């Protein structure tokens, strides 16, 4: 068996193990079905909207794509003869990975297999390139969430579990970063945000912004002194006006769904140990983006979101 075949077998086995461990949905594409040549990879990215299928020069002429040592669009009109690189005006502008590696990295990212060690050994990517590409992917996740952030979770007849958790903690106990999240039992919808402090007015504001009226809000960690603080902050008035109902852990038999969400978020943060604080939100965004995909194929969904995040330009001036 060749090195490439051995590598593919290892990756597929790894995917199977992840599927059992984390309950991933059935994979609709696998490593064997990914493009094997640059031309195939280019066509694949075109089909998924990451690269343009056609392009027009500044004179309005339809250009022709040439794939060789350089991949570029050429205008064959004698009066024009302009040329432009395939990557220009696309999400891949200024990115130097070959197209086959681009597709494979996106696929492996979708399966959460892009550790620095893995990418260096299997994809030939160095440390900086891997870190940068993971950052590029999280930018897409952030954009996708921002486009959908106006939607509130929960609603009448639903239970939304909420909780706070410490995601990171420096050795000297300074610079702690707290996150506050909620998860709707019935729909599986969720939110996760960083918060500057754990004051009840801060949490109440997040609740107003992210949870729909009529929801029953549940937390197993808010003690009676916290609910008293809520009352002191005018929370009772908020509850009455917006028809929220808070219940404590003794009155509801619950499954602590949100605890599993914290565990997943902390697991992801551990994988990215060394991340600076201003990168935390994007790491959380990736976690939340994955969490809301449900039965979707994550590989195909991230390609779709890339195309929306940075749609390729069709009409361009040559450079």
From TrEMBL:
InterPro entries tied to this protein: IS1016-like_transposase, Tnp_ISXO2-like
Span of domain ISXO2-like transposase: 152-292
SMART domains associated with the record: DDE_Tnp_IS1595 (SM01126)
Matches recorded under PANTHER family: DDE_TNP_IS1595 DOMAIN-CONTAINING PROTEIN, SI:DKEY-17M8.2
Protein name: DDE_Tnp_IS1595 domain-containing protein
Organism name: Strongyloides stercoralis (Threadworm)
Phylogenetic lineage: Eukaryota, Metazoa, Ecdysozoa, Nematoda, Chromadorea
């Amino acid at each position: 068996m060749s090195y490439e075949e051995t590598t593919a077998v290892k990756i597929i086995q790894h995917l199977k193990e992840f599927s059992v461990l984390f309950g991933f949905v059935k994979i609709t594409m696998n490593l064997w079905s990914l493009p094997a040549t640059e031309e195939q990879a280019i066509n694949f990215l075109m089909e998924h909207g990451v690269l343009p299928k056609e392009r027009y020069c500044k004179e309005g002429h339809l250009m022709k794509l040439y794939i060789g040592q350089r991949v570029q669009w050429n205008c064959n009109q004698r009066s024009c003869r302009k040329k432009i690189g395939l990557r220009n005006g696309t999400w891949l502008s200024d990115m130097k990975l070959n197209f086959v590696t681009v597709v494979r990295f996106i696929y492996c990212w979708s399966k959460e297999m892009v550790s620095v060690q893995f990418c260096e050994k299997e994809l030939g990517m160095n440390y900086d390139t891997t870190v940068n590409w993971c950052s590029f992917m999280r930018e897409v996740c952030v954009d996708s969430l921002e486009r959908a952030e106006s939607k509130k979770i929960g609603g009448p007849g639903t239970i939304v579990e909420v909780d706070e958790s410490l995601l990171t903690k420096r050795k000297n106990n300074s610079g702690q970063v707290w996150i506050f999240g909620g998860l709707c039992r019935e729909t599986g919808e969720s939110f996760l945000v960083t918060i500057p402090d754990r004051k009840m007015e801060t949490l109440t504001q997040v609740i107003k912004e992210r949870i729909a009226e009529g929801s029953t809000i549940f937390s197993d960690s808010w003690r009676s002194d916290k609910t008293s603080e809520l009352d002191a902050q005018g929370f009772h008035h908020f509850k009455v006006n917006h028809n929220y109902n808070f219940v404590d852990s003794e009155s509801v038999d619950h499954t602590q769904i949100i605890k599993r969400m914290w565990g997943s978020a902390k697991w992801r943060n551990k994988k990215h140990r060394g991340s600076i604080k201003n990168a935390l939100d994007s790491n959380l965004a990736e976690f939340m983006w994955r969490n809301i995909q449900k039965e979707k194929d994550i590989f195909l969904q991230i390609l779709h979101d890339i195309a929306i995040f940075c749609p390729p330009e069709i009409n361009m001036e040559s450079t």
